């Protein structure tokens, strides 16, 4: 039996390709499913299959709130 641990993961379709950012309690399963075509939706449509980065956390409360600011706040500057 595997021990489940919350994690933030970033998957990609290829280098400099489409990114998927998600939070999961089973990182091994989350990476395995799109590689083998078991997930419908975004990951299948954009062929997101490569694990680029992950962070393990102690609880599910921390991962989504801790990383959301770094994902959303550093976008492109506004044009004048």
Explain the overall architecture:
With 80 residues, the protein is an alpha+beta fold. It has a domain at 7-60. It is 31% helix and 24% strand. The protein has three helices and three strands. A three-stranded antiparallel β-sheet has the order 2-1-3.
Main attributes of the structure:
globular, alpha+beta, 3 helices, 31% helix, 80 residues
Short description:
The chain is of the alpha+beta class. Helices cover 31% and strands 24% of the residues. It has a 3-stranded antiparallel β-sheet with strand order 2-1-3.
Structural class by secondary-structure content = alpha+beta
Contiguous low-pLDDT stretches (5 residues minimum) are none
Assign a percent range to the helix content: 25-40%
Strand sequence of the main sheet, in spatial order? Answer: 2-1-3
Number of strands: 3
> Whole-number radius of gyration?
14 Å
In terms of DSSP E residues, the strand content is 15-25%
Secondary structure elements and pairings:
Blueprint: E1 7-12, E2 19-24, H1 27-35, H2 42-45, E3 50-56, H3 61-72
Antiparallel strand pairs: 1-2, 1-3
